[in-house]
Amino acid sequence: EMGGEASRLGGAVASSFQRLGKEDVPASDDAFWSGLIVASSKDAVFGNVTPELVRALLKEHPQNVATLARKAVAKLVKASTVKGALKHGSHQPVLNSAALLSRLLPVLFEGEKEHHFVETVFWKGDLPSAAAPASSDGKQNAVSEVVPADSAKEPLAAPLMDAILALLFKQEFTCAGASDTAVWEGGMGGGAGGGKGSAYDAARAEMLKLLLVTCSETLYVTPDEYKAAENRWLTHYTSRSPELSTRVLVSLCNSIFSYDPVGYGIPYSSSLLSDPREGVVDAALQTLIVVLDYSPGSPAAASDAAGAGKSGPAGIVTERVLDSTPAAQHAASGNSFRGALRGLSGDRDFDVLFDGFCRLLNNPHQANNTLLPSSMKQISCFQELLILFWKLIDENKDFLGYILRVGDINEVVVPMLYFMYEGRKDPSKIGLIHICTFILLLLSGERNFCVNLNAAFAKRLPVDLPPFTGNHADLLYIVIHKLMTDGPNKLDTLYDCFLTTMSNVSPYIKTFCMPAAMRATNLFEMFATKKRLLASEHYPRYLVFTLEVFNNVIQYQYEGNPHFIYQILRRKKVFAELSALAEGKAPPATPETPTAASEGGEGKGKVTEEWLKTWAESLPLQPCLRIMQHLLPQLEQFCISSTVNDEAIVVDFLRTTTMVGLLPVPHPILIRKYQQNEYTSLWFTTYIWGVVYLRNQTPAYFDAPSIKLFTISYVDA
């Protein structure tokens, strides 16, 4: 029965569009237009109306496209202004109108530079000029209606957007409650829930998809064009009242964080039942990250902090400050959704958010770690969750402070390190590795985060980690080392972030295990060779980060770190070479072959002797040289006097030593705090829209060849 109905609707949509392609249908032909809307179920529209068909229609009969857009928008506006509940019989035409607009708008956006249709019809409320007059048989085409009866100017954009927002809270359609403050369901905000149930979920998901589509003109501009122009759709959404923005934000968050992908803990339950919740959770996440990302005025408005600190090769800006410096709140952005995000407060709401993040972000590694293969449903929205988490900790410093004080932040750290480790071999996961890296960098600027990493790591992850017994900082160091030594070349722009994070956490870690200490000293050795230092302008900076790690361990955590001290002592030859460089005693240094220059990927030609000497003089070598000077003679004496055939014996001996009074006065702890800047703002926008594009493939909302914001490369699966 269902199949027959679907094919009947599909046939009706196909034949209506055939007529639209042949003649200009008058706006007054109500039977035709309402018949088309009644037949236009989402499946019928996406199954029969291809982007090519819309493009042809736009070229031959732009008036028809304009009339169809007007009729669909009118249907939504009418439903949104009905007093009281939206009767059940009106639901389908509203959903169908949303499906038609979701199909039309991306195609209109992609060719806007040529035809200015969106500007003419949606913003000015005019009708497009008629198509070329000659018809296929060479006769003149009489443009049936140059001036339709209802030709008063009717801009569609603002009424459409306001109708979408109103329909998100329409009684009996997307919401149970009739009050003006009802949210979708319980959770944050303490308000009563507006009702669960799959009927609501389907309507909510479709309205959110349409909202997302109206914002998607960003996909069809180049990054430079994006920086120069505003997205008026997003400007409209992000300038709504604080009350409405908060109501939308809380409703979407409550839907997302009440989601339980595992169901009642019954294995395989997800393969037996379809999950209407997933559609609304995905749409809610994608809508949220798109509206929260937008900076009204111009996207460069987010770059107020640019230039405040030192920029690394990835354009990441950090500023060195004392570790007691509180996290600074950003200036108001003019985006009402960011204002709402910043306004969230209260332990209860923060618990709802943080518990939800922990539960959902841990799902992918748990689902891959079950005894029964594929028995647990695995969510696909983890990238959106991470972006939302980033937005929250970047905007709402009360939330950040609360989760570091009260929550177990390692519940978020472990899944991120899992995504990074597991994703390093997959070219499509480069963006995922970036977002995890940025979050870890931002967190590492907070003292409480670093201290929390001392908690023992006991989970088993479904990846080939080297065996170790240690804490979460050990896991962090092991994963970063793996990404730097066994990751794709595309990650070298993240070295700065990786090493900054390692340096930031190092003063607070009571004990590093041997595998972690060994990997940190291996990274030092990797950057300390003369050939490498001459090969890339970035390597000297990386070497400084690794030395900071050593100095922090030596000056603040000497007692608990004999493994680390032992690994440093084993590198005495490397330190001797670096000291010789600083004293200008090193043999003349010019990269002997072009390969040396290309090894770092950044070959900048010859680095002069003079430059190298000046640079080497400022290397913070003192603490390491002191421990060598003091401990190496003792260690050699110990090894001569007792037969030592085991590292553990040496490490035990080092436990008994002390450096009290022998080291330079400890420096105050300085950490590098992440600063927002234009580069990262643009990176986030591109990444967010890349995720939105990839996650809306069935049905395909956005046609790949027309996208200009990023390039899509196909990799063999």
The radius of gyration computed from the alpha-carbon positions, rounded to a whole number of angstroms, is 30 Å
Question: Class by helix and strand content?
Answer: mainly alpha
For the secondary structure, the number of strands is 3
**Ends: how far apart?**
38 Å
Instruction: Give the low-confidence spans.
Output: 133-149, 299-310, 591-604
Helix content: 55-70%
Shape descriptor reads elongated
What percentage of the residues does DSSP assign to strands (E)?
A: under 5%
Query: How many helices?
Result: 35
Mean pLDDT: 88
Structural commentary:
43% of the residues are buried. The chain contains 35 helices and 3 strands. It has a 3-stranded antiparallel β-sheet with strand order 1-2-3. Strand 1 (310-311) and strand 2 form a beta hairpin. Helix 1 (2-22) runs parallel beside helix 4 and helix 21 (410-423) packs parallel to helix 24 (472-486). With 717 residues, it is mostly helical.
Give me some keywords for this one.
717 residues, elongated, three-stranded antiparallel sheet, mainly alpha, single chain
Short characterization:
By secondary structure, the protein is mostly helical. It has 35 helices and 3 strands.
Helix/strand layout:
Elements: H1 2-22, H2 30-39, H3 42-48, H4 51-60, H5 62-81, H6 91-110, H7 112-115, H8 117-124, H9 157-167, H10 198-214, H11 223-228, H12 232-237, H13 242-257, H14 269-272, H15 276-293, E1 310-311, E2 317-322, H16 336-343, H17 347-361, H18 363-367, H19 382-395, H20 397-405, H21 410-423, H22 430-444, H23 447-452, H24 472-486, H25 495-505, H26 514-528, H27 530-535, H28 539-556, H29 562-569, H30 572-582, H31 594-599, H32 609-617, H33 622-641, H34 647-655, E3 670-675, H35 678-694
Helix pairs in contact: 1-3, 1-4, 4-5, 4-6, 5-6, 5-9, 6-10, 9-10, 10-15, 13-15, 13-16, 13-17, 15-19, 15-35, 19-20, 19-22, 21-22, 21-24, 22-25, 24-25, 24-26, 25-28, 26-28, 26-29, 29-34, 30-32
